[in-house]
Amino acid sequence: MLGMTAIPALIFFFLLLTVPESPRWLMIKGDIEKARKKLIQILGNEAALDEIKDIEETVALEKESWRTALTRESNAP
């Protein structure tokens, strides 16, 4: 019975290896050029540039919110 649950888990694992990297994840990891190419492939040139700006702004806000949350926690009495 335990082996029967392992079969879908293994299938899922191997299918995860085929999932492409998202442009947002690539931007977070610093591979902006690869993210730009993927976005151009999906959206076209002009829309891709707008989306890159949006992703950069969102990532910067998220990093700042984490810093703020962590510093508030460490400064709490």
| Radius of gyration, taken over Cα atoms and rounded to an integer in Å | 19 Å
Low-confidence stretches: none
Indicate the CATH architecture: Orthogonal Bundle
Q: Estimate the mean pLDDT confidence.
A: 85
**Percent range for β-strand residues:** under 5%
Order of H and E elements: HHHH
Give the full name of the CATH homologous superfamily.
Answer: MFS transporter, transmembrane helix TM10b
Can you describe this structure?
- It is a single chain.
- The chain contains four helices and no strands.
- The chain has one domain (21-75): GTP Cyclohydrolase I, Chain A, domain 1 (Orthogonal Bundle).
- The protein is mainly alpha-helical.
- It is flat.
- The termini are far apart.
Keywords:
83% helix, mainly alpha, flat, GTP Cyclohydrolase I, Chain A, domain 1
Give a topology summary.
Layout: H1 2-16, H2 23-28, H3 32-43, H4 45-75
Helix pairs in contact: 3-4
Quick gist of this model?
By secondary structure, the chain is mainly α. It has a single domain, classed as Orthogonal Bundle (GTP Cyclohydrolase I, Chain A, domain 1), CATH 1.10.286. It is built from 4 helices and no strands.
